[in-house]
Design brief:
Elements lengths: L3 E8 L2 E7 L4 E4 L1 E6 L8 H7 L3 E5 H5 L5 H7 L1 H5 L4 E5 L2 H7 L6 H10 L4 E2 L12 H21 L6 E2 L9 H13 L4 E4 L3 H5 L3 H14 L5 E4 L8 H7 L3 E4 L1 H7 L2 E4 L2 E4 L11 H4 L3 H6 L3 H26 L2 H9 L3 H11 L2 H5 L9 E2 L9 H9 L8 E5 L10 E6 L3 E3 L12 E2 L5 H17 L4 E5 L5 H7 L4 E3 L4
Parallel strand pairs: 4-5, 4-11, 5-6, 6-7, 7-8, 9-10, 10-11, 14-18, 15-16, 15-19, 19-20
Antiparallel strand pairs: 1-2, 2-3, 12-13, 16-17
């Protein structure tokens, strides 16, 4: 049967979900390691024992292989690979992007993927390079959608899930359009295609724009797969945007190049004096012995895959705890271009706010970026509902004062709050360091919102003189009292 996708828990746009065909189930977010049957550096069975629940292989390579084609057709893909989980197959689009042509048609690749028993099949879409001009992108997107409609018409939906790749280059309107078109076809599994060039050149700001545009067009219940994303340092950012699955051969490709993965970047093994990991490979080797090992490539691949899977689990826990923003913040400070991507994602706060959960475990202030988080925006949106009477005080000293209809306390980066909310989220569960100008300015946005929502009320802000300029510039309708402080 076709796959069903059930969302179990959410944080920002990230989801813990259950993807199932009725017999096989995987928990998302998840990584689908790429398997090349000609180069079994780590076997699918070993991966399954490590906790991998799904993988991806290339149907085009198998169809052109004298060694594996007939085995796949006679035994089926699962038996040939010795893997019991979900298997997704690519159509040959990767080869199309590299070589410009493939010796297979859209219908032929769909029929072959079905014949070998793939669980998730992919049409022969056109992976348009992100830097292509608009005319080229529009032409190739039309071909992709036409091929997808063709595949949707004859695919065996009872026994396989047809993936709907979302193309459109860097043109956000085309990505959104493609998402809507695919949603209207009734497909529920959508890879976001042709993003590898962005990942390889660290263009995370562009990646955020592309993903957010596609997500805007896709139905909320669709399982979203980010094609070709395999480095753990960017998983948290991608999950926060709503990506559920990743696939990559990075664990093996990095190993071949002698590169050692961590959750914040990678090192050349030759540069390491110590191994900053406690996986089985690193526990049993020193940096020197691993470098000299005749099995160095395989051992590095095992380590890289271990680190990648561990990061997926870390993200799942962050979603469950409601602290995904903090993990994104931590990971994206590992590289300046990831930080650019993080800051770009924060500009989508109003969209993300409507997808985010209302209450969370905590809010840790980690710098000026925290002022743009969805928890702050949601709190600001709630402020107009506060009753201020005719004369209200907002005090920075967290003390009650007489002579006012209502007294509000002040906590940046959120702003004014009734003392009765001091134990509720986010006020009571937020930890902030010593106040700085950015967080106070964010809190003063809340003051301005309150004053504009109550134009007939007199609102006085009581604060130290060091904050007066920020209050008066951010909330010009209020009166500021610094005399007694």
């Amino acid at each position: 049967m076709a796959l069903s996708f059930e969302v179990l828990e959410k944080d920002i746009a990230g989801r813990i979900g259950r993807l199932s065909d009725g017999k096989k189930t995987i928990r998302t977010p998840a990584l689908l390691p790429v398997i090349n049957p000609h180069l079994p550096l780590i076997t699918p069975r070993e991966m399954q024992e490590m906790g991998v629940q799904a993988l991806i292989t290339n149907a085009y390579i198998i169809s052109r292989s004298t060694e594996f084609r007939e085995r796949a057709l006679s035994e089926g893909l699962h038996k040939m690979l010795d893997f019991d989980g979900l298997i997704m197959t690519d159509s040959g689009s990767f080869q199309l992007s590299v070589y410009g042509e493939v010796e297979i048609s859209n219908q032929q690749t769909i029929e072959f993927q079905q014949a070998i028993g793939s669980d998730i099949i992919v049409p022969l879409d056109i992976p348009t390079h992100p830097d292509s001009d608009r005319e080229t992108v529009e032409q190739e997107l039309k071909i992709t959608l036409d091929r997808l409609r063709e595949a949707n018409g004859f695919a065996d939906h009872e026994n396989h899930t047809l993936a709907g790749p979302v193309q459109g280059g860097l043109f956000t309107d085309l990505r959104e359009y493609a998402g809507r078109e695919i949603s209207e076809m009734g497909l529920r599994f959508c890879p976001l295609g042709a993003v590898v060039p962005l990942l390889e050149s660290y263009r995370y700001k562009d990646l955020v724009r592309v993903v957010m545009a596609a997500k805007r067009g896709l139905s909320p219940g669709i399982c979203v797969h980010l094609f070709g994303a395999g480095h753990p340092s960017m998983f948290a950012l991608a999950v926060a945007m709503g990506c559920d699955l990743f696939d990559s051969a990075a664990y093996a490709l990095y190993a071949k190049d002698g590169r050692y993965m961590t959750n914040h970047g990678s090192y050349h093994l030759s540069e390491l004096s110590y191994l900053p990991c406690a996986c089985q490979v690193c526990s049993n080797h020193t940096a020197e012995s691993l470098q000299k090992s005749p099995e160095k490539e395989r051992l590095l691949a095992l380590h890289n895959l271990h680190v990648t899977l561990a990061e997926i689990n870390r993200i799942r826990q962050a979603i469950r705890d409601g602290v995904l923003w903090e993990l994104v913040d931590e990971r994206c400070r590992g590289h300046p271009q990831l930080l650019r991507g993080y800051r770009e994602l924060l500009t989508y706060g109003p969209e993300l706010m409507h997808q985010d959960r209302v209450s969370k475990r905590r809010f840790f202030y980690r710098g000026s970026e925290s002022c743009q988080r969805t928890e702050v925006l949601r709190y600001h949106a709630m402020i107009p509902r506060f009753d201020v009477g005719t004369r209200a005080l907002i005090t920075f000293d967290q003390k009650m004062h007489s002579g006012y209809d209502v007294v509000f306390f002040f906590k940046p980066p959120f702003g004014p709050y009734p003392p009765e909310l001091s134990e509720t989220f986010p006020i009571g569960q937020s930890e902030i360091p010593d106040w700085d100008e950015e967080m106070v300015r964010s809190g003063c946005i809340g003051i301005d919102i309150l004053s504009k929502a109550n134009p007939d009320a007199k609102i006085i802000v009581r604060c130290r003189s060091r904050w007066k300029a920020i209050v008066t510039s951010s909330a010009p309708l209020v009166e500021v009292d610094c005399e007694n402080l």
